[in-house]
Design a protein that fits this description.
The structure holds 2 protein chains of 2 kinds. By secondary structure, chain A is mainly α. Chain A is built from 6 helices and no strands. Chain B has a 4-stranded antiparallel sheet. The chains are: A mainly alpha, B alpha+beta.
Chain lengths: 189, 88
């Protein structure tokens, strides 16, 4: 419990909860649309071997995860160090051992985890129907596309809750973006 | 044995954690602590506050450590009230 209290304090003094939430949506949306794009590409190519599709999707998911982890860590660490330095100048004191110093070291790692794991988890959910081809009533690619569209809708619902917008409208708005993406890819065929 | 009953501190602290969290973190260290937190001056990134801690046996070292842990800096001890007890 003590650890969670400490973590809560770090989140509050740095305002990291809103940053983490923003990163979750931004990179989660990136991950879902990337998977949707890859799967749509395979769909218009005439459904090749499922193993090829899974490997291509997993490769993209791993790349998104590593990109999310490293880019968020580097940018957040730089921002946190800059904020800490400014606060130390105002306080005329070394805050390295205080909650502010500890938060400046820990929060970039936490935000990087959110930024990296959001696309990975959502991508795994989207490609999960490809592992259960025998048990699905529709084709595995169609099931994956439906899962991706559902994920996009729920990301929109989540955004609606954050902004106070009506959840259905917010969900339909992000769903429309995903359908537009599918439409553009279909035009390539 | 001398016991600290009341102590008034002048502290410079960042805006976060806020006054409520700051006062609660100090009060957590004693079973009967009463903490009064008063903001005296607000700057862009910091605020000067007066903290009064009252209790049967106020532990000054723990309080200064808590203030430092929360990013605060103790400027001065403005008022103290102590009492002695005779050990039999």
């Amino acid at each position: 419990m003590k650890i969670f209290d400490q973590l809560g304090l770090f989140l509050r003094i740095t305002g990291s909860h809103t940053i983490a939430r923003r990163y979750f949506v931004v990179n989660g949306f990136d991950g879902v649309l990337t998977m949707l794009g890859i799967i749509m590409g395979f769909y218009i190519s005439g459904e090749p071997d499922t193993k090829v599709i899974i490997n291509a999707c997993l490769g993209a998911a791993v790349a998104l995860t590593i990109s999310g982890l490293t880019s968020a860590y580097m940018s957040e660490a730089a921002e946190r160090q800059n904020s800490l330095r400014q606060l130390e100048q105002a306080m005329v004191a070394d805050l390295g051992d205080s909650a502010h110093g500890k938060a400046a070291r820990l929060m970039p790692a936490l935000i990087a985890m959110v930024n990296g794991l959001a696309p990975l988890l959502l991508s795994l959910l989207i490609i999960s129907p490809l592992w259960f081809t025998a048990y699905l009533p529709l084709s595995p690619l169609a099931a994956s596309i439906c899962t991706a569209l559902t994920m996009v809708f729920f990301l929109g619902v989540f955004l609606g809750q954050v902004s106070g917008m009506f959840w259905l409208w917010s969900g339909l708005r992000t769903l429309l973006i995903a359908l537009l993406t599918c439409g553009i890819i279909l035009l390539l065929d | 044995m001398v016991l600290v009953k009341r102590i008034m501190l002048d502290v410079l602290k960042p805006h976060q954690p806020n006054g409520l969290e700051f006062a609660k973190a100090i009060a957590e260290h004693g079973a009967d602590y009463r903490v009064t937190f008063t903001v005296q001056e607000v700057d862009e990134k910091t605020e000067t506050v007066q903290i009064i801690i009252e209790g049967d046996d106020v532990d000054f070292d723990v309080i200064t450590e808590t203030i430092a842990n929360l990013g605060g800096s103790l400027h001065s001890i403005d008022e103290v009230e102590v009492s002695s007890t005779t050990e039999k």
